[in-house]
Amino acid sequence: MAAGLKTIIALSFVLAIGFLLVILSSALFHSYLTLLVVATYVIAPLPNWICGRCANPDDFMESAGSAIVDFGRFCTGFLVVMGVALPALLAHCGLIQIPAMAMSIIGGLLIYGTIICFTMFFQEEQEF
Questions:
Q1: Residue 103 in contact with residue 25, Cβ under 8 Å?
Q2: pLDDT tens digits, residue range 21-77?
Q3: Which CB contacts under 8 angstroms, 24+ apart, belong to 26-34?
Q4: Model confidence at 98: pLDDT above 90
Q5: Gap between the Cα atoms of 9 and 15, Å rounded
Q6: What would the 3-class secondary structure string for 9-53 be?
Q7: pTM (2 decimals)?
């Protein structure tokens, strides 16, 4: 699947809207705790990437390297759930307002979805 210029422009536009929502949720409601969502969504793909590189790429021992890949997926899933749950927890404690929580969650999901789409569209095919 070849990614063209239109794909890059569209993904960049969605990423900009995601960052805009998170920054506005911080600036409009005068609580900068919602910026922690950006950190969790930017860090979220790293365990998959690191554990995917550390896995054994040998074709003869297919089942030997799956535990580290599963651990990377678990850590990524934890960070994604934390990116959604953190604004909800902050709103429940009264540290941020409910509209800031909604804007932060929607913006964070847009950011993470864009990161996943970038990695899907620009992944290199491996030849055997």
A1: yes
A2: 999 999 998 888 888 888 888 788 899 888 878 776 655 555 555 788 889 889 999
A3: 26/100, 26/104, 28/100, 29/96, 29/97, 29/99, 29/100, 31/95, 31/96, 31/97, 31/100, 33/90, 33/95, 33/96, 34/87, 34/90, 34/96, 34/100, 34/101, 34/103, 34/104
A4: yes
A5: 10
A6: HHHHHHHHHHHHHHHHHHHCCCCHHHHHHHHHHHHCHHHHHHHHH
A7: 0.77
